[in-house]
Design brief:
By secondary structure, the protein is mostly beta strands. The chain has three helices and 21 strands.
């Protein structure tokens, strides 16, 4: 009878094991990220968990940065399960400074119970993110473990920047899903790289740092100057470029949105009055629908520009010395009520004065058109060339020679 070998189906992760019983011995994996060391701000991060078992729930490990090639020097953020604590004074998370194998715990912000992280369990995924501010005299370290913030500052012979990051295990087994390193600008550092555990696999700001800047600024991914990332699991990381035309155009677009779909993230968008170009990334470890017509939606939010119906403006202002007369005009160029009011006031001002209408025949002048402002010099009718008239009618005749007939109405400044 043949036997069949069976294997557990599981997600591919990078796992570090340390079975040594000596507290001073650790298992460390060093990665050369190739990032630039010419920046003053950096972000490092990983997704990790302690597999654990019924018999073994004691695990400890974490993330290192600015390490040497052999890992004997650098900063290390150590996370241990609560059951691994050696005493009541011990903490689940500590920030270490290691110099040539000598370990020193940095004083951090965990001063009292309300500011101390507790309850680290095996079998739970933890997103560990670190922001670092480097000055000439100190290195400020901000650690976020599932958005719980812990800070520490090394002002005693701070370590120099390196391109290396580390994953390590102090005891037991530690599994890693991904690891990243990113040099930051001051604006990016001040904005923070806090990952939201409810925003898909990676937080929106992390996604923007790792992918978005490359899309928007056309950075060379292989230049070594931008962010670095390595994923260990089998993950669909599709970035899709979508070009659309609005159903109702022109329009006034505001922003693109994926709705409540937290497994997709928008990296960049170029919106015009007629269409949009949008870059979307799959922010999960599986195939996902971008829009399914039901739960998930994808679109551009904005205002459609449409021709409105006729709008009537009425003025009830009367003068005791005048008879009320209706003023009606239609125009497709008047867009605001203030414009209509100003035009009605101007017309009323012209009609309230004694206007003169002139009809005359002149030598042919094809350049004259309706709306032109002209002056007439004809002293016999008290026209000295200073009065202004607006042309309301033009008629060109070709009987017995060329001639032009004009009707004009006086206007007053």
């Amino acid at each position: 009878m043949a036997t069949r070998n069976t294997r557990d189906v599981q997600k591919s992760l990078f796992t570090i094991n340390n079975n040594s019983t000596k507290p001073s011995e650790h298992s460390v994996a060093i990665k050369d990220t190739g990032i630039s060391t010419g920046y003053s701000y950096y972000a490092f991060g990983t997704g990790m968990f302690f597999p654990g078992s019924i018999k073994d729930v004691l695990s400890s490990g974490g993330l290192g940065f600015f390490t040497s090639e052999n890992g004997m020097t650098g900063y290390y953020v150590s996370v241990q399960t609560t059951s691994h604590l050696s005493s009541t004074a011990d903490k689940e998370i500590n920030i270490y400074k290691v110099v040539n194998g000598k370990k020193t715990i940095l004083a951090d912000s965990q001063k009292n119970a309300s500011k101390t992280l507790t309850g680290i369990l095996a079998g739970t995924v933890y997103k560990l993110d670190v922001n670092v501010s480097v000055t000439g005299t100190s290195n400020k370290i901000e650690v976020y473990l599932n958005s719980f913030k812990i800070t520490a500052t090394d002002s005693t012979s701070p370590l120099s920047k390196t391109r290396n990051v580390a994953m390590f295990s102090n005891s037991g087994k530690v599994s890693y899903d991904y690891i990243y390193a990113a040099p930051l600008t001051k604006d990016q550092y001040e904005a923070g790289v806090i990952q939201n555990v409810y925003e898909g696999k990676y937080g929106p700001k992390t996604i923007n740092f790792l992918y978005g800047d490359k899309v928007i600024e056309n950075k060379n991914i292989s230049s070594g100057q931008g962010p670095w990332m390595e994923e260990f699991g089998t993950t669909a990381r599709e970035m899709k470029q979508i070009k659309i035309k609005y159903q109702d155009r022109p329009a006034e677009p505001l922003f693109a949105t994926v709705g409540i779909n937290k497994l997709a993230a928008i990296l960049g968008q170029r919106l015009t009055s007629y269409g949009a170009e949008i870059f979307v990334v799959n922010n999960s470890g599986m195939m996902i629908p971008l829009a399914d017509g039901n739960l998930y939606s994808f679109g551009v939010v904005g205002n459609a520009i449409a021709v409105t119906g006729e709008h009537e403006y009425s003025s009830n202002e009367l003068s005791e010395t005048t008879m009320p007369e209706p003023v009606i005009f239609e125009s497709a160029w008047i867009q605001r009520e203030d414009d209509a009011k100003n035009l009605a006031t101007w017309i009323k001002g012209q009609w309230s004065k004694q206007q003169r209408v002139v009809e005359m025949e002149v030598f042919s002048n094809p350049l004259i058109s309706v709306g032109d402002i002209i002056t007439i010099n004809y002293p016999k009718n008290d026209l000295d060339g200073t009065q202004k008239f607006v042309v309301t009618r033009v008629n060109n005749s070709f009987k017995g020679g060329l001639s032009t007939s004009i009707t004009a109405r006086s206007i007053y400044s």
